[in-house]
């Protein structure tokens, strides 16, 4: 497991926690959508950078 892929996956999971927290606080829907997109991109980038795919 590469260092950068680990960082991307951890950041993605951190953003998923932010999505859950912001949804409970009734934050604006656009902010939750923006966090969802960024969390998804971080998780996908982290998974694709894993050494398994080579």
TrEMBL record:
Keywords: Membrane, Transmembrane, Transmembrane helix. The chain crosses the membrane at residues 6-23, 30-48. This is Amidotransferase. The lineage of its organism: Bacteria, Bacillati, Actinomycetota, Actinomycetes, Kitasatosporales.
């Amino acid at each position: 497991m590469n260092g950068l892929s680990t960082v991307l996956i951890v950041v993605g999971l951190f953003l998923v926690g932010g999505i859950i927290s912001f949804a409970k606080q009734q934050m604006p829907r656009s902010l939750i959508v923006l966090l969802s997109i960024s969390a998804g991109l971080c998780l996908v980038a982290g998974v694709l950078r894993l050494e398994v795919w080579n």
